[in-house]
Amino acid sequence: MEGYPNAAAKFSKEANLQPHQDHVSIRARQEIQNHIHSGCIQAAIEALNELDPEILDDNKALHFSLLRLQLVELIRSCNSAGSDIGPALKFATEQLGPRAPTNPKFLEDLERTMALLLFPPDSLEPQLAALLDPELRRTAADAVNKTILEKQSARRAAAIRQLVKMRAWAENTARDKGISLPDRFDIGLRAEEQGQHDRQQSHIGNGHEPMVTS
């Protein structure tokens, strides 16, 4: 339906919904992605929780992947500075340890990540070296961005469906009480067709008759 975007916009306005791509949400998503690309995973998690605290609660795999990436960044910092590995071990024990047993893949990912502490960065096997590659950050950033958009889209669709149900209930209730209502309400689905009709009427009203070819 060509007029569907107009109908959705009309429903959103009536339901007091925010535009699908409001500036605040866009800036928040960009900020989260920038944090991840920069290796500032804790800042990304905090920004994500501020944007939508339900996302990480509902998506355990995404939450674990971000925490695992945060551990990778801690290990990277230890290796580059030659400093104490204590902070990385403490983080793994407190944040990832309790979560790993709940999913075999979590446990496998944690074990592989902890192996980074056993070997110098320049002698890692390809499978382990891949954990230190910037591609891991990009993958995590893409997954977070996709999840945010899906959550926002689902929430918006649910709100619009609820509005349609409420409107139908109100119309049926009014008719049951004998209140006269039009057979149909214009909800914007025919907006494009109406616009074409108006343009044709305007064209005729300006003294330009349609061309007759037969």
3D structure, described in words:
- This protein is mainly α and 214 residues long.
- It has a domain at 20-158.
- Helices cover 69% and strands 0% of the residues.
- The protein has ten helices and no strands.
- It has helices at residues 4-14, 23-37, 41-51, 54-58, 60-81, 86-96, 104-114, 126-129, 134-176, 191-205.
- α2 runs antiparallel to α3 (41-51) and α2 packs antiparallel against α9 (134-176).
- The longest helix is centred in the last third of the chain and has 43 residues, at 134-176.
- The radius of gyration is 27 Å and the shape is elongated.
- Mean pLDDT is 80; it is low at 1-5 and 209-214.
Write the layout of secondary structure elements.
Elements: H1 4-14, H2 23-37, H3 41-51, H4 54-58, H5 60-81, H6 86-96, H7 104-114, H8 126-129, H9 134-176, H10 191-205
Q: Which ranges are low-confidence, i.e. pLDDT below 50, for 5 or more consecutive residues? A: 1-5, 209-214
Output the helix-strand order: HHHHHHHHHH
Q: Helix proportion of residues, in percent? A: 55-70%
Number of strands: 0
Quick recap of the structure?
It contains 10 helices and no strands. It has 214 residues and is mainly α.
List keywords for this structure.
single chain; disordered N terminus; 214 residues; disordered C terminus; 0% strand; elongated; 69% helix; mainly alpha
